[in-house]
Design goal:
heterodimer, A: mainly beta, seven-stranded mixed beta sheet, four-stranded antiparallel beta sheet, B: 115 residues, six-stranded mixed beta sheet
Chain lengths: 114, 115
């Protein structure tokens, strides 16, 4: 049981380049989330999805796009990378078991834009 | 406005002692949940403990307990018998009902356990 997996682990982008951060979960969770964590800060929600085909903006969606064509996958697309997008990106998912519905996190992707 | 406040940027504790990490929250929703997550230096986010607003008893999970004081809107994390492996960042988060399970996060507290 892999849980939530993210690729790549590290990436350096030049300003203006684009890339897709991959996220896959094998827990059949309907809810998925993308966060960014800047140094010394908490997590900020970029986008989230409540099921395949349904996505919505979080607190800081500008400069990003998402899609959710399957339950398992929730890729995050960065278009025209900017230095302000240098951050650690976490993908998380949440299921329907238990009272907590806690979010399970992937290991993160450390992105540097120079 | 919904908000989570963690007022302790950094804390130190001696190994084997107990430590309390503070968390206060602000919400007008009567139904909500409070979470604590641990982030070690390796970077992953690890779920520790959950408290629902209607839960009658304070949550406990092994050495972790949540001191839930609803009237004061506080949800402090208590770690008993601290271990060196407890050194990490600790984040408090809140979820309100009906908001697609989105979490509002505090800025975190860095805990260092001294041998």
């Amino acid at each position: 049981n892999a849980g939530v997996t993210q690729t790549p682990k590290f990436r350096i982008l030049k300003i203006g380049q684009s890339m897709t951060l991959q996220c896959t979960q094998d827990m059949n969770h309907n809810y998925m989330y993308w966060y960014r964590q800047d140094p010394g800060m908490g997590l900020k929600l970029i986008y989230y999805s409540v099921g395949a085909g349904i996505t919505d903006k979080g607190e800081v969606p500008n400069g990003y796009n998402v899609s959710r064509s399957t339950t398992e996958d929730f890729p995050l697309r960065l278009e025209l990378a900017a230095p302000s997008q240098t951050s650690v990106y976490f993908c998380a998912s949440s299921g329907t078991s238990g009272a907590a519905y806690e979010q399970y996190f992937g290991p993160g992707t450390r992105l540097t834009v120079t | 406005a919904q908000k989570i406040t963690q007022t302790q940027p950094g804390m130190f504790v001696q190994e084997k002692e107990a430590v309390t990490l503070d968390c206060t929250y602000d919400t007008s929703d009567p139904s909500y949940g409070l979470f604590w997550y641990k982030q070690p230096s390796s970077g992953e986010m690890i779920f520790l403990i959950y408290q629902g607003s209607y839960d009658q008893q304070n949550a406990t999970e092994g050495r972790y307990s949540l001191n839930f004081q609803k009237a004061r809107k506080s949800a402090n994390l208590v770690i008993s018998a601290s271990q060196l492996g407890d050194s990490a960042m600790y984040f408090c988060a809140m979820r309100n009902a009906g908001n697609n399970r989105k979490l509002i996060w505090g800025l975190g507290t860095s805990l260092a356990v001294n041998p």
